[in-house]
Amino acid sequence: MNLSFFDQFTSPCLLGIPLILLSMLFPALLLPAPNNRWITNRLSTLQLWILHLITKQLMIPLNKNGHKWALLLTSLMVLLLTINLLGLLPYTFTPTTQLSMNMALAFPLWLATLLTGLRNQPSISLGHLLPEGTPTPLIPALIMIETTSLLIRPLALGVRLTANLTAGHLLIQLISTATTALLPIMPTISILTALILFLLTILEVAVAMIQAYVFVLLLSLYLQENI
């Protein structure tokens, strides 16, 4: 059976049942279980410190009204972070390489921020479509441009996350294939390629964390515009 480089992005199935939901729920097993103790062990202390740091960074651009979204945004950040990092392990599937999943996360949350603004401050939310001091002949064109830029925000969120993770996985597979193929022919070149693969893997770990942070940070900025 011949496999292409894009087969790694195919959702795994068992008896015709897609396992993408299972791969999304698995990271929840890595989170600490709630208990009555403040500190249980070093691992839970480290996890709580990371959660506190993530929450603090996400809440900085928001006012007090936006702090109601802290649980949702922090949970989304932890979900994306764990899925992206676990997807870098061998023989694993990364759900965030699927545009459908990323759009399913981006569109409802973007729509929630938009509806929050239209409900709480409709004049200010609609005022974003027309900058102050715009010449009268340019008003129709600017309204269309600003409306288009507003509507493509969820698409940009989903495509950005999908494209960055997909490109990284493809590069890792291409270089690892080249390393294996060059080993019996040119061992020296193969070693250099393996070094590049190691550095690329470190880069992809950073990309996985940064993209999860950027996804949630942009949502928090969209929320700040509407509260």
UniProtKB/TrEMBL annotation:
<keyword id="KW-1133">Transmembrane helix</keyword>
<keyword id="KW-0496">Mitochondrion</keyword>
<keyword id="KW-0138">CF(0)</keyword>
<dbReference type="GO" id="GO:0046933">
    <property type="term" value="F:proton-transporting ATP synthase activity, rotational mechanism"/>
</dbReference>
<keyword id="KW-0066">ATP synthesis</keyword>
<comment type="similarity">
    <text>Belongs to the ATPase A chain family.</text>
</comment>
<feature type="transmembrane region" description="Helical">
    <location>
        <begin position="171"/>
        <end position="199"/>
    </location>
</feature>
<dbReference type="InterPro" id="IPR000568">
    <property type="entry name" value="ATP_synth_F0_asu"/>
</dbReference>
<dbReference type="InterPro" id="IPR035908">
    <property type="entry name" value="F0_ATP_A_sf"/>
</dbReference>
<keyword id="KW-0999">Mitochondrion inner membrane</keyword>
<dbReference type="GO" id="GO:0005743">
    <property type="term" value="C:mitochondrial inner membrane"/>
</dbReference>
<comment type="subunit">
    <text>Component of the ATP synthase complex composed at least of ATP5F1A/subunit alpha, ATP5F1B/subunit beta, ATP5MC1/subunit c (homooctomer), MT-ATP6/subunit a, MT-ATP8/subunit 8, ATP5ME/subunit e, ATP5MF/subunit f, ATP5MG/subunit g, ATP5MK/subunit k, ATP5MJ/subunit j, ATP5F1C/subunit gamma, ATP5F1D/subunit delta, ATP5F1E/subunit epsilon, ATP5PF/subunit F6, ATP5PB/subunit b, ATP5PD/subunit d, ATP5PO/subunit OSCP.</text>
</comment>
<keyword id="KW-0812">Transmembrane</keyword>
<feature type="transmembrane region" description="Helical">
    <location>
        <begin position="12"/>
        <end position="33"/>
    </location>
</feature>
<dbReference type="Pfam" id="PF00119">
    <property type="entry name" value="ATP-synt_A"/>
</dbReference>
<keyword id="KW-0472">Membrane</keyword>
<dbReference type="GO" id="GO:0045259">
    <property type="term" value="C:proton-transporting ATP synthase complex"/>
</dbReference>
<keyword id="KW-0375">Hydrogen ion transport</keyword>
<dbReference type="InterPro" id="IPR023011">
    <property type="entry name" value="ATP_synth_F0_asu_AS"/>
</dbReference>
<feature type="transmembrane region" description="Helical">
    <location>
        <begin position="69"/>
        <end position="89"/>
    </location>
</feature>
<dbReference type="InterPro" id="IPR045083">
    <property type="entry name" value="ATP_synth_F0_asu_bact/mt"/>
</dbReference>
<protein>
    <recommendedName>
        <fullName>ATP synthase subunit a</fullName>
    </recommendedName>
</protein>
<feature type="transmembrane region" description="Helical">
    <location>
        <begin position="205"/>
        <end position="223"/>
    </location>
</feature>
<keyword id="KW-0813">Transport</keyword>
<keyword id="KW-0406">Ion transport</keyword>
<feature type="transmembrane region" description="Helical">
    <location>
        <begin position="101"/>
        <end position="118"/>
    </location>
</feature>
